[in-house]
Design goal:
- The complex is a heterodimer.
- Chain A is α/β, with parallel strands linked by helices.
- Chain A has 2 domains: 6-208, Rossmann fold; 213-329 and 355-443, Rossmann fold (3-Layer(aba) Sandwich), CATH 3.40.50.
- Chain A has 18 helices and 8 strands.
- Chain A has helices at 17-45, 53-60, 65-75, 90-95, 108-114, 124-134, 139-143, 154-163, 181-202, 208-233, 240-249, 255-275, 301-308, 338-350, 365-377, 392-396, 398-407, 424-443, and strands at 80-83, 99-102, 146-150, 169-172, 286-291, 314-319, 382-388, 412-417.
- In chain A, the strands form 2 sheets. In chain A, strands 2-1-3-4 form a 4-stranded parallel sheet, with helices on both faces. Chain A has a 4-stranded parallel sheet with strand order 6-5-7-8, with helices on both faces.
- The N and C termini of chain A lie far apart (58 Å).
- By secondary structure, chain B is mainly alpha-helical.
- Chain B has 2 domains: 2-306, no CATH class; 325-399.
- Chain B is built from 17 helices and 6 strands.
- Chain B has a 4-stranded antiparallel sheet with strand order 4-3-5-6. A two-stranded parallel sheet of chain B has the order 1-2.
- In chain B, strand 5 and strand 6 form a beta hairpin.
- In chain B, helix 1 packs across helix 9 (245-256) and helix 6 (163-177) packs across helix 11 (281-296).
- The chains are: A alpha/beta, B mainly alpha.
- The interface between A and B is medium-sized, with 35 and 28 residues.
Chain lengths: 444, 400
């Protein structure tokens, strides 16, 4: 545990190096097992899984090729910038020749460690990330030279403070109201500070040429992502879990290679759609997940349950900031000069966000719109509203989303859980009951 | 010497127009993602010869006195048939002066102002135009046509046809080639600026009516005005003395050879209302001012343009609003409120972003369709003409 300054350990508890090492090794071992197991289960559910998925399986391994790659790139002098939230402007990081990696954690076991510092009522994503840092588990968090944390919810706010004892942390404070002029001005100032910080760290000036190529790179990624979405609109040719994994790998993979591989996967899937080689029977209930981010590898509980349940469901779309929200919106640049590109990047990360940390007179209308249009586009049969215990903002928005979806006559199921494996049995029963109900609706 | 300058200018403008047209076609074919803007530029450029060369309607009352030139009388169509109806050319709600050769099209504002003077009488024509209808009849025709055009296309004229709009776009492009960013007014200021056009409309109508009071009510408010006579000072068409488009019109016509540059120069000296037969110093000053502001603020003039205000009056306010057929529509649920439409709008219209779905056309919107082009969500924004979708937003990420 490399604390910046010994006297600064306001939050961080002493943890004996030996204990930390033991815990790290133990959790690492379970985690490797869990990753392999998850991939095995995904293969089992989808017997004719395409070869192209192999690449994503490889990248999905936290302690594998991608870690080595980043380590090598770091030795060559590249900087790694971690981010906890999708508000971090990837384009700016890419333009400074740094490697963006998402560091919020999905490890169950480390959440228990986090309990030593923050109370158990806190959202497990936060607790788990703290725990991961305590024992230096996540390779991406360890490799990052600086962290961009976004002060969205209370958990994220304090998380940035705690992580600040270990790493340089650049906070990004999104205004809680998006529409007003002063919010936008404030947000742009925040990003300007961030840009200066990135430039200082990497020693690379973000020129308009570099920013432009970064934006175009992300456009290409968005194009590949949208292709994958289009494929999922029809009868299922890809299981939801696999698509979620593909989306999630984009958060730590080399984005250019990811785009290429995703395009390959999409053309393979398109071929399958023509051959009518469905991944599961076309009458499988089509499920949408919305709510708290679901993070690979441990927190694959819910997707696993849905797609392995009896009757089976298939996740066709999700509204998770760790999933289909990540690459959904492109940066729309009007004139390719620095000003406009910067404004475009700033607006792209604030305005279309459906994060429940925002409020307005219409009450986060964005999110409702997004859900409604996706329910229609993807012919969703039922929505699972996934909330981890402690995620107040998502939990509080449930009623509003339910009312909007009720008008479309789409059943919503509120599922709350924690970073634990113990409730798998109960959740399985609940999910299966919901899918049973959807199945009977589909058959009617 | 002056003829030589005229010849050179003429050559430059003709070659430039042709080149711009070819360039627009080439870029449009090559870069499909930007096709609305390039299609728009193409149409704007294509309308330049139609407006300034006068290819549709006849050259009624060819310039007789010194500004005489050689308007292409032979190639003009419909010269005789429409003479009685549109003695000064067809009313079009774009900034194109009454100078343009052959008077194919005429700016509606000039007609409205100058037809108020004679009111009950035909009045005196200009450069050989002979009016058969009385002023009020001509005014009715002009307003009727203006209202009809506004109802059908609305401010589509501003975004796609108006030559001054092309000039505004050109200034933006010049700024963009230097990699300089544009500036924006705050929303409050912008709304205030947009209201300025109604003040301008009111001002020139009031001045026109005061000067035409002898003809209208038989009450002489200003000395020197006579019944049915054009008043020969430069408040006769008051707006035209401040219009920034007039110098550009004169320049174009001169360089095309339809006006005598020597005559124009001779008549453009001295105090602004005495000697500025073609141009007043106010024209030039405002053109310079607008040019400078428009380099920083996109489509600046279009925000305060009184002609645009007139179109908006006949298109966006009841009862005309209910009958207008060109509308920008938004599908609320497809919108993620990403704000691109708000940022790319050259006149800073916020309603497209803010309003919930349905008709989002506003009086400030010049229908340039930049928002439709830049909206990254399939079918979210649409331009509907009489219920038919002409343009719609596409998933432009896919064509990258």
């Amino acid at each position: 545990m490399n604390v910046k300054n010994e006297s600064d350990k306001k939050y961080a508890l002493e943890i004996a190096p030996k204990e930390a090492e033991e815990l790290r090794n133990a959790i690492r071992a379970t985690s490797t097992k869990v990753i392999a197991e998850n991939i095995k289960r995904m293969k089992k559910t989808w017997p004719n899984r395409p070869e192209t998925m192999q690449y994503f399986d490889e990248i999905a391994n936290f302690f594998g090729t991608r870690e080595k790659e980043i380590r090598e790139a770091k030795e060559e002098g590249k900087k790694v910038i971690g981010y906890t939230c999708m508000f971090a402007p990837i384009e700016l990081i890419l333009a400074a020749d740094a490697i963006p990696v998402r560091v919020s954690s999905g490890w169950y076991d480390s959440a228990k460690l986090g309990n030593r510092i923050v109370p158990v009522e806190v959202c497990p994503v936060i607790r788990s990330t703290i725990g991961v840092k305590m024992i230096d588990l996540s390779p991406y968090l360890e490799l990052s030279d600086a962290l961009i944390t976004t002060l969205t919810c209370d958990g994220m706010t304090k998380l940035s403070e705690i992580l600040g004892y270990y790493k340089p942390v650049w906070t990004l404070c999104p205004p809680r109201i998006k529409d007003s002029e002063q919010s936008m001005a404030f947000w742009k100032e925040e990003l300007k500070t961030l840009k200066d910080n990135i430039e200082k760290l990497t020693g690379t000036k973000i020129t308009s040429k570099k920013l432009r190529s970064a934006i175009e790179l992300m456009h290409k990624a968005a194009k590949a992502f949208r292709k994958l979405q289009d494929v999922r609109k029809g009868n299922p040719v890809i299981m939801g879990r696999d698509a979620m994994l593909v989306n999630q790998t984009s958060m730590w993979d080399d984005i250019e290679r990811w785009t290429r591989k995703t395009e390959e996967l999409c053309s393979e899937l398109e071929k399958r759609a023509q051959e009518k080689a469905w991944a599961c029977p076309p009458d499988t209930p089509r499920v949408m997940i919305t709510g708290t981010p679901i993070i690979w590898p441990d927190n694959w509980k819910l997707p696993n349950l849905i797609e392995e349940a009896n009757p089976q469901g298939v996740i066709v779309v999700d509204e998770l900031c760790s999933g289909d929200r990540f690459l959904y919106d492109p940066v729309g640049v009007d004139e390719w000069n620095m000003d406009d590109m910067f404004n475009a990047v700033a607006e792209r990360y604030l305005l279309p966000s459906t994060c429940p940390c925002f409020t307005s007179e219409d009450g986060n209308e964005n999110r409702v719109n997004w859900l409604i249009s996706k329910v229609k586009e993807f012919r969703v049969d039922g929505v699972i509203y996934y909330v981890v215990r402690g995620c107040m903002l998502y939990a509080m928005e449930y009623m509003r989303i339910k009312k909007a979806l009720d008008q479309l006559n789409v059943p919503v199921y509120y599922l709350d859980t924690d970073y634990t494996r113990e409730d798998t049995g109960q959740i399985k029963t609940r999910v299966e009951a919901f899918l049973e109900m959807l199945k009977s609706r589909v058959e009617i | 010497m002056i003829e030589l300058i005229g010849e050179i200018l003429k050559a430059i403008i003709i070659i430039g127009t042709i080149l711009a047209g070819i360039l627009a076609i080439l870029i449009w074919v090559k870069n499909q993602t930007k096709n609305i803007t390039y299609l728009r530029t193409l149409i704007q450029v294509a309308f330049i010869p139609l407006i300034f060369l006068g290819l549709i309607v006849g050259p009624f009352g060819l310039p007789q006195s010194p500004p005489a030139g050689n308007a292409p009388r032979e190639v003009l169509l419909g010269a005789e048939n429409l003479k009685g109806w549109f003695p000064d050319g067809i009313t079009v709600p774009v900034l194109a002066c009454y100078y343009p050769s052959g008077r194919t099209v005429t700016c509606a504002i000039w007609q409205i102002q100058s037809y108020i003077y004679p009111f009950w009488n035909p009045g005196l024509g200009f450069w050989g135009t002979f009016y058969t209808n009385s002023g009020i009849e001509r005014l009715a025709i002009v307003l009727g046509l203006l209202i009809a055009m506004s109802l059908v296309l609305g401010r589509f004229f501003c975004g796609w046809i108006c030559p001054f709009g092309l000039y505004m776009d050109l200034l933006s492009n010049i700024r963009a080639t230097f990699k300089k960013g544009y500036r924006k007014f705050s929303e409050k200021t912008n709304t205030a600026i947009h209201q300025l056009r109604y003040v301008i409309i009111a001002a020139f109508l009031i001045i026109s009516i005061i000067f035409g009071s002898q003809a209208i009510f038989g009450l002489q408010l200003v000395s020197g005005t006579q019944q049915g006579e054009y008043v020969y000072n430069y408040f006769s068409a008051p707006y035209c003395q401040v219009c920034p488009m007039k110098p550009l019109c004169v320049l174009t016509e001169t360089s095309l050879g339809y006006m005598d540059p020597a005559y124009v120069l001779e008549s453009t000296t001295g105090a602004f209302y005495e000697a500025g037969y073609f141009l007043t110093s106010l024209n030039l000053a405002i053109l310079v001012l607008v040019t400078i502001i428009a380099l920083a603020y996109r489509r600046f003039w279009c925000r305060i343009c009184p002609l645009g205000g007139l179109i908006a009056l006949f298109n966006r306010y009841p009862p005309f609003k209910w009958a207008s057929i060109t509308r920008l529509n938004k599908v609320e649920e497809k919108c993620t409120k990403c704000g691109i439409c708000k940022r790319v709008c050259p006149t800073q219209v916020t309603e497209v972003y803010e309003k919930e779905g349905g008709d989002v056309t506003t009086s400030a919107c010049i229908l340039c369709l930049r928002c439709v082009e830049m909206c990254p969500y399939e079918d979210c924004l649409k331009l509907n003409v009489a219920g038919k979708t002409i343009f719609k937003s596409r998933n432009w990420v896919n064509s990258r």
